[in-house]
């Protein structure tokens, strides 16, 4: 039997404005498919965005300084992100320390936009364009980093199945490409993982 929520989804569609989540605390990665929910989160002020990333494990929620004291997140306008972690003794640590973003100085919001579109199957060119990212260097680097993360995730998930000997894992994004940069790509693009024991 169709539920009220089910009927509403059918009527409005998963990505519609009517189904947006307006309470930012309720938004999870699963809600990124709804552009309105995604936008209300990432159009918020820096502190809200960074706190959401901390709660959801993409930025450190707590850091302990090399002196042993706990650090708190504080404003520091001279840095790329506008925030740093600081301990009571005044030592400062970068906000991206020990995180997914540590190796980059690229704007975190733009990176999230790039990751969202790339994972949803947009071409590298389109994902880079949406995130206002350089197509040839930064986006290629980030796309390969995302694929590495995917591999690592799958590898960890499948570690429970006991393989014997050497195991190799490789990944590829399959889908229809556009010829000579003309026309629109059609059909879904999907990730394929290959594994050899
Ligand atoms: Zn310290």
Reading side by side through the largest sheet, how are the strands ordered? 1-2-3-4
What percentage of the residues does DSSP assign to strands (E)? 15-25%
Can you give the helix content as a percent range?
25-40%
The topology string of helices and strands comes to HHHEEEEHHHEE
> Using only CA atoms, what is the Rg?
20 Å
Biggest sheet details: 4 strands, antiparallel
**Apparent shape:** globular
Q: Which runs of at least 5 residues are low in confidence (pLDDT < 50)?
A: none
What is the residue-mean pLDDT, rounded to a whole number? 83
Structural class: alpha+beta
Number of E-state strands: 6
Distance between the termini: 45 Å
What brief labels describe this structure?
single chain; 197 residues; alpha+beta; four-stranded antiparallel β-sheet; globular; binds zinc ion
How would you sum up this structure, described in words?
The protein has 197 residues and is an alpha+beta fold. The protein has a domain at 103-197. Helices cover 34% and strands 15% of the residues. The protein contains 6 helices and 6 strands. It has helices at 4-12, 35-42, 46-55, 108-119, 124-130, 138-158, and strands spanning 63-64, 70-75, 83-87, 92-94, 168-174, 190-196. The strands form 2 sheets. Strands 1-2-3-4 form a 4-stranded antiparallel beta sheet, with no helix packed on it. Strands 5-6 form a two-stranded antiparallel sheet. The radius of gyration is 20 Å and the shape is globular. 12% of the residues are buried. The model has no long low-confidence stretch (mean pLDDT 83). It binds zinc ion.
